[in-house]
Amino acid sequence: MVLFVVGVILIFIFTVMIIYTVRHYCFLWNRLFGKQRRDFQDLPGKYQPGISILVPMHNEEKVAANILSRLVEMDYLRERYEAIVINDHSTDRTGQIADGYASKYDFIKVVHRTEGKNRGKASALKVGTVFASHEIILVFDADYQPSKNCVQRLTAPFCDVAVGLVMGRVVPLNAPDSFLTRMLDLERSGGYQVDQQARYNLNFLPQYGGTVGGIRKNILKAIGGWDVTKFAEDTDVTYRVFLNGWKVTYVNIAECYEEVVHNWKERRGQLRRWAIGHNQCLFAYFWKTLTSPILKFAQKIDALLLLYVYVIPVLMVIGWLLGIYVYFFGAYWWWILFAALMFTLAYNNVGNFAVFCEVGTSVVLDRRGRVVWLLPFNLFNFFANMWVCAGAFFVTLFEGFKGVAKEEYILEWEKTKRVSGINALGAETIERKEAPRPQIIKEKAVEESKIVEKEVVEESQTIEEKVTEEPKFAALDSALAEAYRLMRERNYGDAVEVFKFAVQVAEDATATAMLEVELGKIYFILGEKKNAIQEFSEASKICADCGNEDLKREIEDMLNKLIPLSGKES
Amino acid sequence: MINYLFLVLLFMGLVFLCFLPALIEYLRPKDDKPLAINLSMELDERYFAHSFRGILEPAFSGVEKDLVLKDEQKPGWLQKFPVLKTHLMMHRDKEEIWLAEGDIKVPAGSKFDRILIVNGNFSTEENCSFEKELFVKGDSFIGQNNVLQCISATGKLKLEENVLVRGWIDADEDVYISKGCKIKSRAASGKIIWIAKESQLSRLAGEEFVVGGDGMVKTKSKVKEIVLPIIRWTKEMDAIIKENFKSKNLFEIKELFKEKFNEDIPEMLFFRRARVLNFIEPLVKMNEKQKPGFLKDNKVWMQGGESVLVKGNVTISEGENVPYNIIIKGKLTSQADVVFQGGLHATKDVFLGDRNHVVGSVVSDDKVVLGMDTVIENCVDAEKDIFIRKGVTIGSEKRGGGLAAGGKIYLQEGVSGRYKVYAENGIQPVESIDEILSK
Question: pLDDT tens digits, residue range B177-213?
């Protein structure tokens, strides 16, 4: 009886492996011999809609200057282009570097988040989106270095009203650094060049990877914005966009360098985070995908297989354990053969994020050479994937049952440590290129002329002073400007959010009280009198010792007006 | 025992063999550089010409006087002009390059097989053949039945009838392509490209292109863009939208606003406002009262982002107004004078009638046929062929524009557009679109 049950489970797992294998070979076939879908890349150039680029940063001093200098050089119409850096609770010089760029280039804005509980990429993106003034939002991680035409290429598909999300290709820049980075280079290569492109060709679901991609702002609003409770906000957005009937487009030619993790510890953390996030999405969107009234059958199947990617390791671990059981207690020799076959199938075709045939194909398509010789070493990656993803599955499952996952995950940044800070163009780290701005400009100036040196140094000092003394005021100013703009547009809901953010940023009691008053006024306009009274009361407390008599009087007047009104209501 | 040991060793040896190449590449890496991305590459429609000029411009900077060709070394039509010669490595081959000063006229039937730079105007009579590229620093006039490799001109460029170009053509000013010309690669211009019917091209990239008749007359004026006004929404207005959004369609709400506020607000803006006020949940089915007449027989979902998703074929009758972006899982047919206030996407064919106006783009997973005098303010993209009737205008100052097809693009006389055109199987100006469609 036991053997029968074991046999049934093994056959089930084997069937799943076969399904995934067939899926990957279909992708391979499509990429090599199928019709490649046109991804609107014949159009970029003159079609340049307004875009807001969000760059969330948390302790990114090693790489901040690289991405910002790439964004400065981007080939796009300046009047339709803005970059918003969200400096989220950084404790290093990230904010200063960003401010340095912002003071030099008008299109770069910096939002400093220094207080508040919610941290993390999704939360930072949520704040950044409030400040985004253009119709399309692109996201780049801080360690990414896009090519000059990347933004144009990513924007082109948005000319189609059916396109909601766009994803570009990621290429590891630090591939030669270590054994792991070389493995990840292969993995990324297969994953993007073959897997993502084939899914796009076949009208399935290419996944938005949270960076080197973009979304329409109105669609993002319509689907409820960034979900800060999800570890994988990218997968979450991908599924919400797809399930609501928009297309997700992959642009293989929109290339961008990234810095991949260097060591196994970092890799473990990254993988665990992805796996938990992805599994959260599995629980959230499994049923919706299955019952979607607008997706085709094949689209549903592929979307489900994509959702289950991080469950496969669990199945495999179970399969191995059963294989061992069969070896010692099994009656039939072919069970053992079966288990061995399953292992081979898993290793080659399922267990690695980009399966072997796809990696090989990508190497051919990219016209690379001997790098593919490293493929057998993926065995280590394979075991790491199995172990971490299986563990992460149970973490998601049990914490989901306990209901504590949300509170635990929204509070902190889980990110990869930056090590190299290589600049793809000059191989200079930011320590030399951007951080001590006055010195490096000075050095350059000495070579050219002493007079120029003096001017430049003075200018740099001004930048430095601004940067070190007033980072928060820059954020407050931009927040206020944005809040008043939203109020002018009568978009009071968003204005409330921005004012709340401004309250967090403001240090001065008078400023905080004034902001509370503004909040109170908006609540009053919105007819939320209780909230309005609460805000005015708060302002009254803060302003008690601020010495601004006019403000005190204004607050008292408002409270006197509101409290009787509120009484009548009650 | 020895047998077992041998088997184990054999097994381990075979396993090691699998890892041997990996070990070699890891210990002595030969391919460990990151995949090369050209980070500085800009998208340039006139890339060929710019790069060609970039290579040729410095070619004669260090040329000595003894490289001035003697008369016996030159063909007759270059006799009276000073000509310099040099060599340059291009595409792995050493190419001979000639530089001629003056306005050159090439007599009929001449042949030339070197790269030629002309510092002056350049004209040819019929049946000439140039096997290598030409770079003219002035105006160019290419006679009938000439065969060229590529040509770049800093002035105007005119190809007379039946010229065959094996590569690309490019000019800083207007480019004229006459009847029967064939250009295998792209035609690019810093200004306008004029194309006569019965010519064939692959790509067009200019500020504007005009498919003219034999007389090369620009027939189309600039696009009149539809600009949505900015509305000052009041609480009262919002309340009316909220009250009526589920029980009336947008046209009825518009009438209501006219009555109550005396405001003529485009329907798209009510939809947009409803989204801002969160009256539209994502992917909610439109009820029968909300549906406009042309969607009565279809399943319709409001997507939440100013778009509706429609299942089944859609036919829109004359003079209708489509107040949202429309994504159709089926075929779209519109009659004359239909206004689309947003963009449209269809998974099957799109047939737009005469004088339609689309504020956004037209995208189809199949083919697109555009009626006479239709205006598309943004791009047109189709997986298969695109048929464009007389008077159609594509692209606008504000939204840019472009035309791309996975198949062929047929342009009828009188079509004009902004910026760029690309067709995988070629662009063909024709006399009658109906004739092609009937085939």
Answer: 998 999 998 899 998 899 887 888 888 888 888 887 5
Q: Based on the domain organization, do A304 and A233 belong to the same domain?
A: yes
> Last residue of some domain: B190, B212, B241?
B190
Neighbours of A273 (CB within 10 A): 18
B97, amino acid identity: I
Secondary structure percentages of chain A, helix, strand, coil, to 5: 65, 10, 25
Count how many residues are written for chain B: 439
Mean pLDDT, all residues of chain A: 80
Whether B155 and B294 share a structural domain: no
Say yes or no for a CB contact (<8 Å) between A145 and B39: yes
Chain Cα centroid distance, residue B90: 29
Its domain, for residue B354, covers 284-438
The share of chain B scoring above pLDDT 90, in percent, equals 38
CB A354 within 8 A of CB A30: no
Assess if residue A200 is contained within a domain. yes
- Structure token digits, residue A244: 């609501």
Both A279 and A352 in a single domain? no
Q: Report the residue of B16, B37, B273 to disrupt the A interface, i.e. the one with the largest count of A CBs within 10 Å.
A: B37
**What CATH number should be reported for the domain holding residue A553?**
1.25.40
Cβ contacts (< 8 Å) between B310 and chain A: which residues? none
Residue A413 confidence (pLDDT) = 59
- Per-residue pLDDT tens over the stretch A4-59: 888 888 889 888 989 999 999 999 999 999 988 887 887 766 678 899 999 999 98
Angstrom distance (rounded) from CA B219 to CA A387: 69
Same domain membership, residue B185 and residue B288: no
- Determine the residue type at A461: Q
Same domain for A114 and A260, yes or no, is yes
Which residues does A563 contact at the CB level (< 8 Å), separation at least 6?
Answer: A533
Cβ partners under 8 Å of residue A565, min gap 6 = A529
Size of interface A-B (CB pairs under 8 A): 187
Domain count, chain B: 2
